[in-house]
Design a protein that fits this description.
mainly beta; five-stranded mixed sheet; 11 strands
Length: 123
């Protein structure tokens, strides 16, 4: 099990790439951004969550977003209402730039470093 920490080193001692974040797309917290700057970042309504959100549809420790040395991922933490990634219920899944995570009533947008600004421009 991954440990919560405030360092910037990911699994296997690899640094967590700078620039990754999740942004709330709608509701009371719209526009709020949180950098994914560690290997294990817990979002929920509990006091021990790194991103504490006073939203009754969230579990105290609802979901973790992190980095495992090979890429970013999302992992449901046995939440009551589950976690949706791009509309599909997921327990754990890799993340890609532009993915949308739904936890309770909150919709989050994932932004990852190194993603091309316009994929059509690279053709």
């Amino acid at each position: 099990m991954a440990e919560s920490g405030s360092g910037t080193e990911g699994a296997a001692g690899r640094p967590v790439p700078a620039g990754a974040c999740v942004r709330v797309l709608s509701g009371f917290y719209e526009g709020l951004e949180l950098p994914i700057d560690r290997e294990w970042l817990v979002l929920g309504r509990g006091r021990n969550a790194e991103m504490m959100l006073a939203e009754p549809t969230l579990s105290r420790a609802h979901v973790a977003v992190g980095y495992d040395g090979g890429g970013f991922f999302v992992q449901d933490l046995r939440s009551t209402n589950g976690t949706l990634l791009n509309g599909e219920r997921r327990e754990r899944a890799p993340l890609h730039d532009g993915d949308e995570i739904q936890i309770g009533r909150l919709h989050l947008l994932v932004r990852l470093p190194g993603a091309p600004l316009d994929s059509a421009a690279s053709d």
